[in-house]
Amino acid sequence: MGLIGLGKMGGNMRTRLRNAGIEVVGFDRNLERSDASDLADMVAQLPAPRIVWSMLPAGKVTQDTVDAMQQLLGRGDLLIEGGNSRWTEDLRHAEQLAGASIGYVDAGVSGGVWGLDNGYALMVGGSPEDVGRAQPIFDALKPPGEYGFAHAGSVGAGHYAKMVHNGIEYGLMQSYAEGYELLEATGIVEDVPAVFNSWRSGTVIRSWLLDLMSTALDADPTLSKISGYAEDSGEGRWTLEAGIEHAVPLPALAAALFARFSSRQDDSPTMKAVAALRNQFGGHAIKAEDPSAAARTSAETEDR
Fold this sequence. Notes:
Layout (H helix, E strand, L loop, with lengths): L1 E3 L3 H12 L5 E3 L11 H6 L6 E4 L5 H13 L5 E4 L5 H12 L4 E8 L4 H4 L2 E5 L2 H6 L1 H7 L7 E5 L3 H28 L7 H7 L9 H12 L15 H11 L5 H13 L5 H14 L8 H13 L1
Parallel strand pairs: 1-2, 1-3, 3-4, 4-5, 6-7
Antiparallel strand pairs: 5-6
Helix pairs in contact: 8-11, 8-12, 9-10
C-alpha cells in the first residue's frame, strides 16, 4: 500500500503497518523520511489494484492530493482519506474519484502519538466492498481485541463519527481542566496531582485523558511552564454547527469551545462592556486599565 504524509501520526502508522507484515511505500515532502521521490514514484512502486492512504491535514493539501490521485490511480484502485477532513468534503471527493472508477473510504483516526504502541481507533465510511478490501490494513492499525474499529456507514460516516468524537473530547478536557482549577483554588487540597492520580483507578471518571492529565501534572504540578492559551483545530466548530443544523443541544461542547476562544484574549472586550454597563446603570466600581498594558497593546497593534 501507499501512505502519503509521514508526520507524527503517519510515520508511526507506517511503522505499525510494517510490524504487522504489510508492505508500505510512504511519501512525504520531507524526502529524508520518504520511500519515494514523488507521488508518481510512490504509485509506480505499488502493484495493482492499489490502495493508497492519505494522512494529511484537512483543506487544500488534501484536496490537491485527491486531485493528484485522480490522475495517478486507475480503475479498481482505492484511496483512503485518513486526515481530519470535514465529512461533507468526503462526499465531494468520492464523487470526483468515482468518475475515474477509483474507490474512496474516509477514515477517522484517533490515537495520536501513542497509536504506534496502543493502536489506533478507526471509524470508517465507504461501501462494504471498499472497506472489505482494506480490512487487513484496518486490522493491523486498530488496537488488539474486540473494540477499536467501526464501519460507521457510507462515505462520510467515518469522518462524521470522528467529528463527534472530537466534540466529546472537548467537553471531557474542559471538565478535567475546570476540576483542576477548583482544586488549586483552595488551600484545603495540598496535593492536587495526588488527587488526580487517585481518580485513575476505581472511579467513574477514570479515562485515558485523565491519565494524560496526571502525567502532565506529575511533570509540572502547577502547570507553571504552560500558557493558558488553547487553540482549536476545527472539529469542535463543525460538531457545534452540526448540532445547530439538527437542533441537537450541545451546551457542554459550546462552553468548552468558547472557553478556548476566551483563552486567547489578554483583556476581554465583552467584559469591558459588561463593566461599563454595570457602572452606568448602578454606579458600580470599575477597575481602570493599566496604562502600561494599554500602551503595549497599542504598540503591538501598530506593529501589525
